[in-house]
Write a structure and sequence with these properties.
The protein folds into two domains: 5-77 and 150-324 and 361-470, Outer membrane efflux proteins (OEP) (Up-down Bundle); 91-133, no CATH class. Helices cover 60% and strands 14% of the residues. It is built from eleven helices and eight strands. It has helices at 5-9, 13-16, 39-49, 51-73, 100-110, 152-219, 225-260, 276-280, 295-316, 364-430, 436-470, and strands at 34-37, 77-86, 92-96, 128-132, 137-150, 267-270, 321-334, 346-356. It has a four-stranded antiparallel beta sheet with strand order 2-5-7-8. The longest helix has 68 residues, at 152-219. It is rod-shaped.
Length: 475
């Protein structure tokens, strides 16, 4: 039976149809884990095991650590240092001779005379002294404290921490929503495939019965061998079609496992059922919707908030910042390295308050402010465009869903009518008032009606999921 299932699976072809072996869901050579999942259990499993979701949740944890970095900027920074220095040759400094003038002044005041009997006078130039300051060994141990008292950019960063975390959480929710939407579609398509297989089995049973009856009629001389062969060909084609459908469904299970992060060697059984009433139930009863129900709209609004923080940060960078620094240390100097023994240690201590006043940086800050403002306008335009897109998605999805429901109801009635036509045609054939051509035509019409019904079921499921996603009510 030529079904139109392929066109419905093809939209996820890159995800679902993978080159796995399709003779069975699990290999016979290893013990397998069996999962019997409802739709909600499938979604819950994906939240824990889908790699995209797991990475999005890791991004939330990474943002938490980054927030701790922002917090650390506002906390005191304390550092301790110990430094020991060895000077093989103490540095020499050349300084003016300040000793000789005092000595000469004493000699002059005392009236001392030189070897020629003349009073000593003050020379015009006393030259320089080469002196070494310090010792060969020195050690300093100290503690330094630095505390930001006020910095506009730091405090804006502290304010933005909560919004940054919310941004990452919302990104994770958007990822989960995308995965959930695909799970809904694939899960229910696989559920509907059970109905497809049941219809195929029913058709095979009808053809097997028809083949049996046609053989009896042929044996009694009321049919030709050609009639038997035609039914045999139809039965073989239908069995081949079932094998193809089973292969497609098997690939669909592999794709669903990949989507939810389940090992392909595990066995997956879907426990939920679906009928026409389930598809129709309560979807359009309340058609009101709010943009804020959409995760992607919430994320866009958070992006606008973060951009506003950027503007504030740049503006506050134009005002002075204040930093407190405190330093306390002990210093010792020795001729030999003997700091663990007794000896003098000298205290060094300082406290300073630094005010940094930005005056001119080439208009870099003003440029960044303007860039952030323009970026904010872009984000607002994107939000407005998203609103229009949501409106369009909702209206389109609503129309598609209504049309899909109407088509599904029509095709179901048509399938029931085709069954009745086939039943009546078969009765006529059995009593000899109908022809082989008539029953072949009835069989073909029945298969076509069943194919159209399955196709309408798939369309209705996809339309329902698309509508619920569009209005942000996909649970």
């Amino acid at each position: 039976m030529k079904m139109t299932i392929n066109k419905h699976w093809s939209y996820l072809a890159g995800l679902l149809f993978l080159p796995f072996a399709t003779k069975a869901q699990t290999p016979d050579t290893a013990a397998v884990t069996k999962h019997a999942f409802s739709l909600q259990q499938t979604i819950d499993y994906a939240k824990k095991h889908n790699l995209d979701v797991k990475n999005a949740l890791l991004d939330v944890q990474l943002q938490f650590q980054q927030n701790r970095e922002y917090t650390s900027n506002a906390l005191p920074h304390i550092n301790m240092s110990v430094e020991t220095t060895y000077n093989p040759s103490v540095a020499t400094q050349v300084i003016p001779n300040f000793i000789s003038p005092a000595t000469y002044q004493v000699l002059i005041d005392e009236g001392v005379k030189n070897g020629n009997g003349q009073p000593i006078t003050m020379p015009n130039d006393f030259g320089f002294i080469a002196a070494q300051f310090g010792t060969k060994f020195s050690t300093t141990a100290g503690v330094n404290l630095q505390q930001i008292l006020f910095d506009g950019q730091v405090f804006v960063g502290l304010e933005a921490r909560k919004t940054l975390m919310e941004s990452k959480r919302k990104t994770a929710e958007v990822t989960e929503e995308m995965i959930k939407t695909n799970i809904y579609k694939v899960y229910y398509q696989l559920v509907v495939s059970k109905t497809q297989v049941e219809l195929l089995d029913a058709n095979i049973a009808l053809l097997e019965k028809l083949l049996h009856d046609t053989k009896l009629i042929y044996q009694n001389g009321f049919a030709e061998k050609l009639d038997v062969d035609k039914v045999s060909v139809q039965l073989a084609n239908l069995q081949t079609e079932k094998n193809k459908v089973m292969n497609t469904i098997s690939n669909g299970y592999y794709g669903l496992k990949l989507l939810i992060g389940m090992p392909v060697t595990d066995e997956l059984v879907l426990t939920d059922t679906l009928n026409d009433a389930d598809i129709k139930e309560g979807v359009l009863e309340n058609s009101d919707y709010k943009y804020e129900d959409r995760k992607d709209f919430q994320m866009a609004q958070i992006g606008l908030q973060l951009n506003n923080y950027n503007i504030r940060r740049y503006r506050l960078s134009k005002i002075p910042s204040f930093t407190l620094n405190a330093y306390y240390a002990k210093n010792a100097q020795r001729k030999q390295w003997s700091f663990v023994r007794r000896g003098d240690w000298y205290t060094i201590a300082s406290v300073s308050l630094t005010m940094n006043v930005p005056i001119f940086n080439g208009n870099v800050t003003n440029t960044k402010i303007r860039e952030a403002q323009l970026n904010g306008l872009k984000i607002q335009n994107q939000i407005d465009a998203l609103k229009n897109s949501i409106d369009n998605q909702v209206m389109t999805a609503k129309n598609n869903f209504r049309s899909a429901i109407a088509t599904m109801d029509y095709q179901k009635k048509n399938m029931e009518l085709a069954k009745e036509v086939y039943r009546q045609t078969k009765k006529k054939y059995e009593v000899g008032t109908g022809s082989q051509m008539e029953i072949n035509t009835a069989q073909t019409d029945l298969k076509t009606a069943q194919s159209n019904y399955i196709s309408s079921l798939y369309d209705a499921i996809i339309a329902k999921v698309d509508y619920l996603h569009a209005v942000g009510k996909l649970q």
